[in-house]
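Quick one:
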Amino acid sequence: MAYHIEVFSVLEEYMLPRLIDRIPTDERPAVAHIEMQLIEDPTVVSVVFTEGYTDTIYFFLGFMDGLFNYIDCLIARWYKPSSESCDVYFDYYFGHIVEKTPRPPATYAQTVIADEVQLDMWYTNKRLNDLRDMMYISALIHIVMHELGHHVVGFAQPWMTVHEHRKLEEKVDRWAVERLTEMEGPPMLGATIALGYVSQMERFRQARGVTSFATHPMPRERAEYAYSIGCVEVSDPLVVEACRMLKDIIDAFE
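Output:
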């Protein structure tokens, strides 16, 4: 978990101020005082949130760990197409978290790489680590931008219907993507990863009959949106694989 705490520090100290500075001048006052706080609870995998009454975006450590494992799976599927399905892994991973069993879930790589030497190489290879860091930060930036978007676009109100709430979330999604595409970097890779992971969580929730995110857009809709904006005429093999995983999730909901 120390790695996630270090990444959060980078996100908080360096990336958040840069994101705020790059938001259009007329929208910047709404987010100028936003801060971030990490909640070091490894058993909460589904929460990053902000509210209208606070200037804080809250990250749960468990969410970051789950996102890391989604990226680990994505890289493995790109690097070794015969790797075990991410769906199979996340059924195990989320199920383990839900049951709160004493032993923490292994990383995706630990479930598919039995040889300790190869596993050590997987996590010490500089090229793969640089790639993993870039993908992780890109996805977290997209998530932060979505939460900033609530302070600009608006928050759900008690009188809103589920349909209205979902439309608001979709509008915030689009605001975040539009702002990120105006900046340098790989914003669409971050969007496909972030929304792919969220959709993976929702796939598990639906399988368990849980509807705690009923006020958010349906997971298929969010995945389809990410696919429609990030997966058109792409050639980068890593983005292609991220898009293939998104398509798998979309198909799972049909």
